[in-house]
Amino acid sequence: MPVTIKESWKQQLSQEFRQPYFSALIHFVKKEYAENTCYPQGSDIFAAFEHCPFDSTKVVLIGQDPYHGPDQANGLCFSVKDGIAHPPSLINIFKELENDVGKSYPKSGDLEHWARQGVLLLNATLTVRARNAGSHQKKGWEAFTDAVIRKLSDEKGGLVFLLWGGYAKKKAALIDEEKHYILTSGHPSPLSANRGYWFGNGHFSQTNEILKKIGKRPIEW
């Protein structure tokens, strides 16, 4: 499984690719994909980086695991392939988007258009075995994606980090709050959203207000 990733990311993460943990991780992932059904498809594992180059990144949204159902995961956190039914968390994201900025509920759950505008849709773990949530956690992906977050924090300024839910909020420890903007809320999953921790967070409009304030183009959500 070759690491197909934008040149700007290759330059920033070259040291990580040479680490022993990364070699062990790639060996594990290759074996898993050879012996089991895994998601996303191999060509989409690094899709978050392919669609959002390092130099273009201005918003970072952190998820945890890829979807583990058939044909759902496309390498972008919370996103599903075009034509696939929207999972509950994505439904709540789109409902909040509708309430916050007035965007009509979309037919497609593919968030690639966000990524192409500079939103890095980063799962902490980039692969998963089919129907086995968390099966590829603690194999090295977290070390890699933590390094991505640190690199963004260290090398860039004025990024907006969207941390939804307890797991994502822990990533705040990797981010320099003096240089960046951190927006936190509950997770969009029904368990959290139905308890009042998600709806009304206004993160989409807040993100665009921040971007405009610092002279960057807002996101067309």
UniProtKB/TrEMBL annotation:
GO terms for molecular function: uracil DNA N-glycosylase activity. It is an enzyme of class 3 (hydrolase). It is found in: Cytoplasm. The active site is at 65 (proton acceptor). It catalyses: Hydrolyzes single-stranded DNA or mismatched double-stranded DNA and polynucleotides, releasing free uracil. Keywords: Cytoplasm, DNA damage, DNA repair, Glycosidase, Hydrolase. Gene3D superfamilies: Uracil-DNA glycosylase-like domain. Residues 50-211 form the Uracil-DNA glycosylase-like domain. InterPro entries: UDG_fam1 (IPR002043), Ura-DNA_Glyclase_AS (IPR018085), Uracil-DNA_glycosylase-like (IPR005122), Uracil-DNA_glycosylase-like_sf (IPR036895). Its EC number is 3.2.2.27. It holds the Pfam family UDG. Belongs to the uracil-DNA glycosylase (UDG) superfamily. UNG family. PANTHER family: URACIL-DNA GLYCOSYLASE. Excises uracil residues from the DNA which can arise as a result of misincorporation of dUMP residues by DNA polymerase or due to deamination of cytosine. This is Uracil-DNA glycosylase.
